[in-house]
Design goal:
The chain has 14 helices and no strands. It has 349 residues and is mainly alpha-helical. The radius of gyration is 21 Å and the shape is globular. It has helices spanning 8-33, 41-53, 57-69, 76-104, 114-127, 134-155, 158-174, 195-206, 214-236, 253-268, 275-286, 288-306, 315-338, 344-347. The model is unreliable at 1-8 (pLDDT under 50). 70% of the residues lie in helices and 0% in strands.
Length: 349
């Protein structure tokens, strides 16, 4: 497979920003989604639809990482030092901010025993001080794996890449709750998890598909995947023997189809934009990670202080609007943290 082509950068920049906004929408819709049976059905369906629509966000992030990082040769120590410092230091800073918010919100308390307080903070750092930080723990694990899997993909034939992806998909399928009874004792966890999205992103970014009307087919797949996730999740609620959130999980065939179609639509659709819009996109893209780290805190305060949430009005409109307001605040917040003298560039993300 060839190295990532220069012309892919524009569409990857577009997709990265779209995926970030999608994740914020997802987090705005989740509180309403968890109130099935307690809210009007139309409100719940709106949250369900928006949740399904935006489930490609995190897989798209990982696929972008694979598309950009796997084609390159790295010296392992240099790669880990550079990448982990960019991820871990901002992560620790924002993790402590969320520990502070938990204290401010009276979810945790600190006593006179300093060591007990330290242990409580360390426990929160180990397990995650906010719901959205699971992504960072997963990303750190992938960074340790990238120098190894990168060596494989750069030297693999297309047939070998397809073999890897096929086995990964098979393992994903057989470990789903509704098929787990058929899961044999053969240990196939080597092919499980988000590593497959790395290879998939590399493969799709570099593969030239000679398929007529491919963008149209990807649009149909995108719409089909949304319907499958939204309607399927509603049907699963009636069968408590299965987890109702099964089709929302990133490592799920339905979300995989959604992520593939979203990734390919971004690749096949590069709209002509004015230089001003391109500069705005690139400015926001520089603070993409910082926006992700900060957005949950912004959502907390938007709701607590101003009542800005899905409750503003019709959820189908108020959820995207809340996400847009959150994005508009998180971006300058990330910029401001970046400008803190001496430490800003290390902690902002």
């Amino acid at each position: 497979m060839p190295a990532t082509k220069p012309e892919t950068i524009d569409w990857i920049s577009n997709l990265r920003l779209i995926a970030l906004y999608a994740v914020i929408i997802l987090h705005c819709s989740s509180p309403l989604l968890m109130q099935y049976g307690k809210v009007p059905a139309t409100d719940w369906w709106a949250a369900d639809f928006l949740n399904a629509l935006t489930r490609f966000g995190v897989p798209a992030f990982v696929m972008i990482t694979g598309a950009l990082l796997l084609p390159r040769e790295y010296e392992i120590a240099s790669f880990l030092k550079k990448r982990l410092s960019r991820v871990v230091v901002p992560f620790l800073f924002w993790s402590l901010i969320y520990v502070w918010y938990s204290w401010y919100n009276e979810e945790i308390t600190f006593g006179a025993d300093a060591w007990a307080n330290i242990k409580q903070v360390l426990h929160l750092l180990k397990t995650g001080s906010s719901y959205h930080l699971w992504y960072v723990y997963m990303l750190i694990g992938l960074y340790f794996f990238i120098p190894v899997i990168g060596k494989f993909v750069r030297n693999a034939s297309e047939k070998e890449l397809i073999y890897f992806l096929a086995v990964w998909f098979g393992v994903m399928l057989i470990t789903q709750p509704y098929l787990s009874r058929y899961n044999p004792s053969v240990d196939m966890h080597y092919f499980a998890g988000f590593a497959g999205y790395l290879v998939l992103g590399y493969y799709l970014a570099n593969k030239d598909f000679n398929i007529k009307y491919l963008r149209f087919w990807m649009l149909l797949l995108f719409l089909f995947s949304i319907a499958l996730i939204a309607i399927g999740s509603r049907l699963l609620i009636s069968y408590p023997i299965y987890p109702g959130t099964m089709l929302y999980e990133p490592i799920n065939p339905a979300v995989l189809l959604l992520a593939i179609s979203a990734f390919m639509l971004a690749k096949l659709t590069v709209p002509k934009t004015s230089p001003a819009i391109t500069r705005a996109r690139d400015f926001a893209g520089r603070y993409n990670y910082g926006i992700y780290l900060a957005h949950a805190l912004v959502l907390y305060f938007l709701d607590d202080l101003f009542g800005i949430s899905y409750k503003l009005g019709m959820p189908i409109l108020s959820i995207p609007l809340t996400a847009l307001i959150c994005f508009a605040i998180s971006l300058p917040l990330g910029w401001a943290v970046n400008k803190i003298p001496f430490v800003g560039k290390w902690i902002s993300g």
